[in-house]
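Worked problem 6 (solution included).
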Amino acid sequence: MEVKELTISMLVRNKPGVLSRVTGVFGRLGYNIESLCVAETISPKISRITSVTKADTDFIEKVRKQLERLVDVIEVHQLERTDSVQREMILIGIILTDENRTAALQAVSVFGCKIISMKRDYCIVQVAGSKEEAQTALNFFKPLGVTQIARTGAVALPRVEETSFS
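Solution. The predicted structure is:
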C-alpha cells in the first residue's frame, strides 16, 4: 500500500477530554500525528481539529469509523490538497549580525514574511503559507542564524462549505 500524507479535519464538541480521545484513536491504530491544530470555530461550543499524518489509503476509512464512534465527534473529513486551502505558520528566531542582517531583511521581503519583533541583534520573523512555502523560507533562513522556531502545523478548510458549524 502507498503511504502518503493525509489531512483530516474534524468538528468536535468543545469539551474536556475530547482531544485526548481523538488522539488516542490514532495511537491505537498505530499512526503518528505529524501535526495537530485545535481551536474554537465560530461557535465556542464547537472546535475544529486538523491533523496531518502519513498513512496508507486504508487508514482514512479505519480512522473515520473509529472517530465517528466517539460521542463528541460531529464530523470527520479527509481534505485533499486540491479541494482545500491548507496553511502553516512558523515563528523563526534569528540572531542578526552585520554579516547576515541585509540578507535576512531581504529574505523577509522575498518570502512575504512579517517581522514580529526586532532588536538590534535578534529578530522574530513570521512565515505563513503552504507547508512547502513555509519550509522553503525556513531552509533559507537556517544558515543565517536561526536559533529557534515554533510551528503551528497545518490549518485547513475545504474550498466549499461543508457544515453550518464551521
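Discussion: Residues 73 and 88 are 24 Å apart (CA to CA).
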